[in-house]
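Quick sanity check, Bifunctional diguanylate cyclase/phosphodiesterase:
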Amino acid sequence: VELERDLRAAMGSSEFALHYQPKMRRDGSVAGFEALIRWNRPGVGLILPDHFIPLAEQLGLLLQLGRWVIEQVCRQIADWRSAGLGTIPVSVNLSTSQLTSAALPDYVFELMRAYGIRHGCLEMELTESMMMSDPDLAIAILHRLRGGGVVLSIDDFGTGFSSMAYLRQLPVNYLKLDRSFVKNIADDPKDADLCAGIMALAHKLDMHVIAEGVETSAQHQALADCDCDLFQGFLFSRPMSASTATEFLRQPH
Ligand code: G
Ligand code: G
Ligand code: NA
Ligand code: MN
């Protein structure tokens, strides 16, 4: 009840912040970042999304919050570009309410125009389960986003409802290989074979694969051997504040 009260009060305040976790290329350079929301709850401290995103969704606050996230990311991309750091792609995590909102593409395009965001620079991550309530609407929304230059990723790929029939219909650029596949990849040849198969499938469908939850260099090496395109995880960096992410971009990698 207090959580609900505080969350409602936090809407429109400056209590939310985005942290950024890098996505690395095979050559060790930074391909972009994933934006992850945090809530600086007064008197409590930094709260991770798992503790308030489901409640925000339940209370119907997530469309508004999600829109704030997208605007914040557009502003960050523009800031990095004007700081001379180049055009850095950033992904946001979508919610079910956004994927069932026909208005999503239009306000995304409006924000992209307002902040001068080029095609290919704003990315969106969604899970297969988010599409389940209204798959036709979700697929239509994804096609509009993709047509407007938004890069799309299936998050936690392999854990949800992964129908091969859907996969073919989805205008998706990246599969994000779920952490659970990465965990034992360096020790279990069956897991390595499975990952290699997923990479081959993705590449056949003109998709790229990013591995999440990479924590050890053995996992990194095994994934590279499977032809994985991008890597994300604590091995490279935890999610960082915007200013730390800016420092990270300035360092050679
Ligand atoms: O940041 P962390 O790694 O603790 O993220 C936990 C979960 O919260 C992940 O599933 C992530 O996708 C989700 N999440 C993080 N930021 C956002 C956001 O801005 N919007 C939504 N809908 N989910 C988010
Ligand atoms: O569901 P999603 O993939 O968006 O989740 C992102 C979450 O994963 C964030 O909470 C982030 O902090 C966490 N995360 C990112 N890298 C790693 C990692 O290497 N290991 C573990 N255990 N969690 C990670
Ligand atoms: Na994600
Ligand atoms: Mn994920």
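Posting the structure with no commentary besides this: The first helix runs from residue 2 to 10.
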